[in-house]
Write a structure and sequence with these properties.
single chain, six-stranded mixed beta sheet, alpha+beta, 643 residues
């Protein structure tokens, strides 16, 4: 791999322009090109919404739509959310009644509250929509939500089809290049074959059939369509964070303020405060980016199983596990990005507030990631419910013996009694087999040096998830014994139990996957140190936000534990400081994509910023004397092609 990089493939990974950032690039402990190849792979480097739903939910009879999508003859959208219901998909009110006389489904919106809403691409451009509606057959038998392909516009004129009212919902706080729209349907008839029938179908006579005999399995398999959107949002959020971190760190490496003497100013990146503010988000980019890619591959496995007709219990369980991970990773990624972009904006001072430097745009564009495809706090309930369901299954299997564990009595093992174990296809919950033993553990690291490894945080995270799972289960049952209904009990558990449980679980999964990734044998020796530091920094920094819970549950005790954790984070920031620019070089897109004067790869901070200001203000058109000053000539040269 190294020989390929050093062989001079400048078309694949061209050199950066020379400039003020060279000093930091020269200090890097690794080759940024080697890390780029290891992280992305040569194939991906050379390669540098609707269709997925049709593919994952349909069958061979829908391949014609796939072909038209790729030929750009039709444009699609994914219509699930309605004006009055989003997260509560079971309350979606659009209906699809089957008429056996004509072999058609009648798609209908009963009132304006059932209008499809917030649908991307629907506002102006989509010709077809995957519409989720309650499928009903003769005899008033309804079988829940199913997806249908519905034509909403004429592809040639873009005028609405008969019975369809469609339009744009209006200007948003950001992402106004995306035409989010609404649609209502008045008894719109579509052929029987318009039903995307992988999870269930209707015969010409009107009989509902499904390859899944178990409703729970059918639901688990159908979660893939919802999970794919959330997995995509994780990637989008991390992309926004990549851009913000690249801008802020390149700025910090070239912005000089104060110094040991009045004559010497140093880059603000040299200050521990700036490192502490920014470098954990750089580590988060690497950890979350790897998790996002690995979760996407898990989703591909799920879709491949659906395509091959896999109806096994493992396939259904895989759908539920991915649903749980996607439901928590979207909140984690979008909130981390939200907080990270704000920190980057502030870390760039007044220049970060200039619209041309793009941090404000990134912040606004990321904001809806916290809401669409499910409100973050609501989604976290999906994950905590998944974990509580696993525990309830174990309690049922163990019977009264289990309550020794719940009372913190030592239990030697759990994977007994007719094979009742914590097992999942992706192994994200397998560690729970050691549940009782984990809860007996304490934080025993006494020095900063011993803490500089993500394995330390992994052990703490496993304890934290076990502790929160036990506490949440006990709180839920306590509320029920006090007279609360299941609905009321779950709501009372969310704030201080279910929510932190879901977040801790997904953070553990991210940390676990990144730890395994950077410690695999295939990692080039020259990259192991820097990747290990990134893994440890993300893990310890994320864990530090749960310090109160770690103390409350007894895993931490005394002042030293918290002090060691804080000191380890600062030490790792210091160790990564010299590698920061090179690490940014790996993840930053070309300048024309980054589109930020203070974040350009040449590091000419003030020339680029001044030139952009002059170009936007058009002051040169009114001040012909300005170019006579020699100090301005380099800027004039760089602006000639733009003015």
């Amino acid at each position: 791999m190294a020989s390929t990089v050093e062989g001079g493939d400048t078309a694949l990974l061209p050199e950066f322009p020379r400039g003020p950032l060279d000093a930091y690039r020269a200090r890097a402990s690794f080759s940024w090109k080697e890390l780029a190849l290891f992280t992305e792979g040569e194939g991906m480097l050379r390669f540098k919404v609707f269709g997925s739903a049709v593919y994952s939910s349909g069958s061979e009879r829908h391949l014609t739509y796939i072909q038209k999508i790729f030929r750009m003859e039709i444009f699609g959208c994914f219509a699930l959310t309605e004006l009055s219901h989003g997260s509560n998909t079971k309350a979606i009110r659009t209906t699809a009644h089957y008429d056996p006389a004509t072999e058609e489904f009648i798609i209908h919106s009963p009132d304006f509250e059932a209008a499809k809403f917030w649908v991307g691409n629907m506002g102006k451009t989509a010709t077809h929509a995957v519409v989720f509606a309650k499928l009903c057959v003769p005899g008033d038998q309804c079988h829940g939500l199913h997806p249908f392909i519905v034509q909403i516009r004429d592809p040639k004129t873009l005028l609405p089809m008969p019975g369809v009212m469609v339009g744009d919902i209006g200007k948003k706080l950001g992402q106004n290049g995306l035409d989010n729209g609404f649609a209502m349907f008045h008894k719109v008839r579509v052929p029987r074959q318009s039903l995307l029938n992988r999870m269930g179908d209707v015969t010409p006579e009107g009989t509902y059939v499904s390859p899944f005999k178990d409703v729970r399995q059918r639901f688990g398999a159908s979660l893939g369509s919802l999970s794919s959107g959330r997995v995509s949002i994780v990637s989008l959020a991390i992309l926004n964070l990549k851009l913000a971190v690249a801008i802020a760190l390149r700025f910090s490496a070239t912005r000089r303020q104060f110094g040991p003497t009045e004559e010497e100013e140093i880059p603000v990146l040299e200050y521990p405060m700036q490192q502490w503010r920014l470098l954990p988000y750089l580590a988060a980019v690497y950890a979350l980016d790897h998790f996002s890619k690995s979760l996407f591959l898990d989703l591909v496995e799920l879709q491949r199983g659906l395509a091959s007709g896999d109806r096994s219990a493992r396939q259904a369980e895989l759908g539920r596990e991915i649903h749980a991970l996607a439901s928590a990773s979207k909140p984690l990624a979008s909130w981390t990005t939200q907080q990270g972009i704000q920190e980057c904006r502030e870390a760039c001072g007044g220049h970060g507030y200039l619209a041309m430097n793009r941090l404000g745009v990134l912040r606004d564009d990321n904001d809806p990631n916290c809401t669409y495809e499910g409100d973050n706090n609501i989604l976290l309930q999906q994950t905590s419910n998944y974990l509580l369901g696993l525990l309830a299954h174990q309690v049922h299997a163990w019977g009264s013996q289990w309550f020794g564990f719940l009372s913190s009595t030592k239990v030697t093992g759990m994977c007994v009694l007719d094979g009742a174990c914590f097992r999942s296809p992706l192994k994200s919950v397998d560690f729970l087999d050691a549940y009782p033993g984990i809860l007996d553990q304490k934080f025993e690291v006494s020095s900063v040096a011993d803490c500089l490894d993500s394995a330390v945080a992994l052990a703490a995270y496993k304890w934290l998830v076990c502790y929160l799972l036990r506490e949440t289960y006990q709180k839920l049952n306590q509320e029920k014994r006090s007279g609360s209904s299941d609905f009321e009990a779950r709501n009372k558990c969310q704030v201080s139990h279910g929510r932190p449980l879901a977040l801790a679980f997904v953070e553990l999964t991210v940390v676990q996957r990144f730890h395994e990734h950077v410690h695999q044998p295939s990692v080039p020796p020259s990259l192991r140190a820097v990747l290990g530091r990134l893994s440890a920094l993300y893990a310890l920094w994320s864990l530090s936000r749960h310090a109160a819970l770690l103390y409350r549950g007894g895993y931490f005790s005394g002042e030293q534990a918290g002090e060691v954790l804080e000191s380890a984070v600062l030490a790792l920031c210091s160790q990564l400081k010299d590698d920061a620019v090179a690490l940014v070089d790996v993840i930053a897109p070309p300048d024309f994509v980054l589109d930020s004067p203070i974040g350009r790869a040449d590091g000419e901070l003030y020339k680029n910023l001044w030139g952009a200001v002059l170009q936007e203000s058009k002051v040169l058109e009114r001040a012909s004397w300005w170019p006579e000053f020699s100090v301005n000539k380099p800027v004039i040269g760089s602006l000639k092609s733009k003015l």
